[in-house]
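Most newcomers find our protein records easier to grasp once they have seen one. To make this concrete, we reproduce a full record directly below:

…
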Amino acid sequence: MKPFTIAEYQAEAQKTDQRRSDELGLDFHLLGLFGETGSLLSEVKKKQRDPIAYLGYKDSVVEELGDVLWYLTALACRARLGLDELAINLDRSLADWQSTGFTELSFVAIEAPAAEVSTSPTPAFEQTLLKLAGEVGLLMTDHAAGRLERNRSALKGRLIGVLRALRAAAHEAGITLEDAAKANLEKTFDRWPVERHYPPLFDEAFPVHEQLPRQLVIDIEEVELNGRTMARLTCDGKPVGDPLTDNRDDDDDYRFHDVFHLSYAAHLGWSPTLRRLLRVKRKSDPRMDEVQDGARAVLIEEGIATWIFNHAQHLALFEGITALDYGLLKSVRRFVSGYEAETCPLWLWEKAILQGYEIFRAVRVHRGGRVTIDLDARSIRYDKP
């Protein structure tokens, strides 16, 4: 297999920089580098504080090392420097300084064999992290003092210092920079792909009567039943499930939350709850029926909808928000771990959630309406009553 080059990583990483066209200088990415270095230190602190309870240490360290590398790469791009220009001088003295890079330079070429991956932070790892934090601090200080402005060599020297400390930290953690770089690209393209392609529908190989309807029109209305305000769903005049209340003392209109399930179905092609309501479980495959369409999958989807709703209430139900916090999306991925929706990319989850809330806000205003989903076009539309 061809070695993964440092220049290849930089080219791919740059594609995921959402602010690459902004004229912001170095400030934004310096803050990002500072923040991600702090997050890496925080992972060590968590493991030291809760050595038994904190089980995500190794994966978190790989992710945070990759994030630090990403911001360092973004800074190099801003400064019109090749990451290979920095890497080629990691082990050179000033007398042996090389002013140009080498695009075929691979991560393997600059790394010593990684130590064994540790399940907890070693003293050596802690020391290299402190050095990394120190190098990032020096970079920030020199930038704030204006010492790097129009001084390309000084900036290059500071960035090399950060990369050298990052390499040492990765080595002490038992992780190669190449592994961190590849994991980082997988993560960032999952969240911010260059091109967005919908994955195949999960039920496309099943009989039509076991598929989520490719075209579906649901009418939502608010009704009074036995002195309680409820939301009722119908399809072609026939009830879909039971009328819903908010199921809490305070009125928050959660009775309309089925629109979230409709949005999940439209974009993800996934909604065990909607399958149950429409009676389109995949019974021809007993395992699929039990696991992917079963009661536990329904509870997980309902749990996701409720958890996100509690979060959204603090953010005006996502009104005016065009991008969700990465931590929220990552938590949703954990919710569905082991289920088919785990394979849905994060950008698609984001779209399903945001469009679901767009419709929820409209239903709230008009106290009902019509929701049309088209699974062939992966679209959902709202029409007021």
User: Anything to note?
Assistant: The chain has a mean pLDDT of 91.
